[in-house]
Design brief:
CATH topology: Rossmann fold
CATH architecture: 3-Layer(aba) Sandwich
Shape: globular
Structural class: alpha/beta
Strand content: 5-15%
Radius of gyration: 18 Å
Number of domains: 1
Largest sheet: 5 strands, parallel
Strand order of the largest sheet: 2-5-1-6-7
CATH class: Alpha Beta
Order of helices and strands: HHEHEHHEEEHHEHHEHHHHH
C-alpha cells in the first residue's frame, strides 16, 4: 500500500469509531444491549501490551481468524474504561472495531492482514474477545495502573495479556521514521513502556505471555497452538495452517535504515540491559 492510501485509511479509521463523537456512548449502549446474547459464552478477555511496530497487528489479525475469537484492532479499550463505559458497551465497541477494520480491507502500515478462508469479521461462538493497541495500552497503564483493575471489574472475565517483543533498534527507528520523533525521544517512549511491561510481567506472571516477533515468524504454527491454549480455545488445524500461511519470512530490519549517533546507540544498549526480557538483543549487539 502506498503512503498516501495508508494515511487515508488511518484517517477514515479514526473517524468511523471515535470516543470524541457524541453519539458513541449512546450507540454502544444500544448496540451492546441488542447483542448481549452474543457475549454470554465468553471465557477470556485479552489485552496486548508492548510497543508499536512490534508485530502486534499481525498477531492480533492471526488470532482474529479463529472462529471463536474477536480482536478489536486499535480500539484502545482502556480509554473507554476510563470514561465509564459498561461491559456490553466495551464488548460491542471491540466487535464493531473489527468490522471497521474489515471494511478497510484489513490493510495497515503497508501490510495485508487478511487470512483467506477463516473467520475474520465473524465468529461461530464468541469465546475470546480483546483489544490490539499495545503501545497505547502500555502507556496508559504506566500513567494509570488502576485502569487494569477497573477493566477486570468491568468486563468480569479472566484476563490474558500478550506481550510481543521486537529488537529495540528496529522499534525505535520505526517510531522515529513513522512518527517523526527524534531517535532519543523515541527511545525514551520505548523504555517508558518497557518499564510498565516489566512491572506487569512481575506483578501478573499468571496472565502475561511474552513472545518474540522473530520467534513467531520462525515458527508461526507452534506459537499459534500455544497461544490458543493460553487463551482457552482449541488450536484448530485449519486455523493454524491458514493463519501461519500469511506470516512473512522475516521482519523488516528498520534499525539499519536510519543512521544512529553512537551515543544514542550506546544509551539504548545500556538501558535495554536493565530488562531481562531484552537481554538476547543486548547480547546480539555485543557479539
Amino acid at each position: 500500500m502506498n503512503l498516501r492510501l495508508d494515511t487515508i485509511h488511518r484517517a477514515l479509521y479514526d473517524v468511523r469509531l471515535s470516543s470524541a463523537l457524541p453519539w458513541t456512548y449512546v450507540q454502544s449502549a444500544i448496540g451492546g444491549w441488542r447483542n448481549r446474547e452474543s457475549y454470554r459464552d465468553l471465557r477470556t478477555f485479552v489485552l496486548f501490551i508492548g510497543n508499536g511496530r512490534c508485530g502486534t497487528s499481525l498477531l492480533g489479525s492471526l488470532l482474529n481468524a479463529h472462529r471463536h475469537v474477536c480482536i478489536g484492532h486499535e480500539l484502545n479499550v482502556l480509554r473507554y474504561v476510563a470514561r465509564g463505559y459498561r461491559r456490553d458497551q466495551l464488548l460491542w465497541l471491540l466487535v464493531k472495531q473489527d468490522a471497521v477494520f474489515g471494511q478497510l480491507g484489513r490493510q495497515w502500515t503497508g501490510y495485508d492482514y487478511d487470512v483467506p478462508g477463516q473467520w475474520q469479521g465473524r465468529f461461530e461462538k464468541l469465546l475470546v474477545v480483546g483489544d490490539k493497541k499495545a503501545g497505547s495500552t502500555s502507556s496508559m497503564l504506566g500513567k494509570r495502573p488502576q485502569l487494569l483493575r477497573k477493566l477486570e471489574e468491568r468486563i468480569r472475565l479472566p484476563l490474558r495479556i500478550i506481550h510481543l517483543v521486537r529488537h529495540p533498534h528496529n522499534v525505535i527507528t520505526t517510531m522515529h521514521s513513522k512518527q517523526g520523533w527524534p531517535l532519543a525521544e523515541a527511545a525514551d517512549i520505548f523504555f517508558q513502556r518497557c518499564e510498565t511491561n516489566w512491572r506487569l510481567m512481575n506483578e501478573r506472571p499468571d496472565v502475561v505471555r511474552t513472545l518474540y516477533l522473530e520467534e513467531l515468524i520462525a515458527e508461526p504454527q507452534r506459537h499459534l497452538v500455544e497461544l490458543c491454549r493460553f487463551l482457552g480455545v482449541e488450536p484448530l488445524e485449519d486455523f493454524v495452517r491458514d493463519a501461519a500461511g500469511i506470516v512473512f519470512d522475516k521482519p523488516r530490519q528498520s534499525g539499519s535504515a536510519v543512521p544512529w549517533p553512537a551515543e544514542v546507540r550506546r544509551s539504548v544498549e545500556r538501558r535495554a540491559a536493565a530488562y531481562p526480557y531484552l537481554a538476547k538483543y543486548v547480547i546480539e549487539a555485543a557479539a
